[in-house]
């Protein structure tokens, strides 16, 4: 190359490089200037009021503490009504049918099929496809897959984001166990029944080994009845949606529950979550299997005497291994709300379940469904329920409770006859046979056996 052109070529390259860098910087600046922000996204909806239903549980109280931050940032007002869990589904269904004013829908894992099939929920794709409403940092893969799939999705469509999510854990009083000669909790249900329970039960002192929340209703059907099926290898239904309650595995689980009852407080069939948690908190029982969400209650000195004696582990293993209870909710947008309220509701749901809010939500008393927050060692050290909860979510039972639309009707049957079994009004076999027959009648009427409905969702 002619040397006299080299300086010019070098200068051209330098000038081009400077121009490129300047242009790139300008583009980045322009991009940053127009980067998505919650405040900007919410401007068209400032002054809008959206309404939700909350439960009287720690996760919802945590959200209530954080909502003022959202309202200040967006100008959107969030109003909620706290009602008992047992009344929630009925109230929401009446709202859908009667044209009420609820905008944010609380969706239990077993309601998703009913709500989605009736087109009461807006698929999140409506919002995630809208760049004005979709936070680029939403990161759906950042949720635990079992939670996003079980609580928020139906027929391969996502309707809600996991919000208040639970794993069944064993909470126990390590001081009571130590006094009885045990240095660790039982690893299996068989150990709990045959080794631990006899030494921990002292009826004359009103002290019992275990409390299994079993009140008639969803507590009986899900928290008591279903809880003893899966660890033993049993299930409510088989692959063809026929009753599996007469199988040896299911029968073993239900018989186990009857044997364990003599080591539980009198009136256990009337125990709901509050009573079971309080029994442990006040030193009446040594162990409970309860939802991870009740950790804040058991560590609240104003509600619990257990103090430093509280310890947490996974639920015991059964013949089929570790098959813990899985429960929780998602938040979804009401398809019957107007467009403005739908958008405002989505912005709130997206925000309260975001990775950015996961740690504040946890610190306020909630349980986030985000994987990243639990990878923080400081979080693991501060919250002892985290490791067993994550282990349970990684190996949980996706269909711990069937998610089809007919579950509420089936749950009523189990609630009635499951209670009768526990009370000794019918035998395990009689009760299981009746539940199986009535469940199949419900599913037959719904069209599951004549090809009108697919068996798997």
Please supply descriptive tags for the structure shown above.
single chain; D-Maltodextrin-Binding Protein, domain 2; two-stranded parallel sheet; 10 strands
Q: How would you describe this structure to a colleague?
A:
This protein is of the alpha+beta class and 457 residues long. The protein folds into 2 domains: 38-166 and 327-394, Periplasmic binding protein-like II (D-Maltodextrin-Binding Protein, domain 2, 3-Layer(aba) Sandwich); 168-325 and 404-446, Periplasmic binding protein-like II (D-Maltodextrin-Binding Protein, domain 2). It contains 19 helices and 10 strands. The strands form 3 sheets. Strands 3, 6, 7, 8, 9 and 10 form a 6-stranded mixed sheet that branches. Strands 1-2 form a two-stranded parallel ribbon.
Q: Based on CA inertia axes, which overall geometry fits?
A: globular
Query: Residue ranges: pLDDT <50 for 5 or more in a row?
Result: 1-33
Q: Percentage of helical residues?
A: 40-55%
Main sheet overview: 6 strands, mixed
Instruction: Specify the number of helices.
Output: 19
Radius of gyration of CA atoms, rounded to a whole number: 26 Å
Based on DSSP secondary structure assignment, what is the total number of beta strands? 10
CATH fold topology of the largest domain: D-Maltodextrin-Binding Protein, domain 2
Which class do the helix and strand fractions yield? alpha+beta
Classified by CATH, the class of the largest domain is Alpha Beta
Just name the CATH architecture of the largest domain: 3-Layer(aba) Sandwich
- What separation lies between the terminal Cα atoms? 71 Å
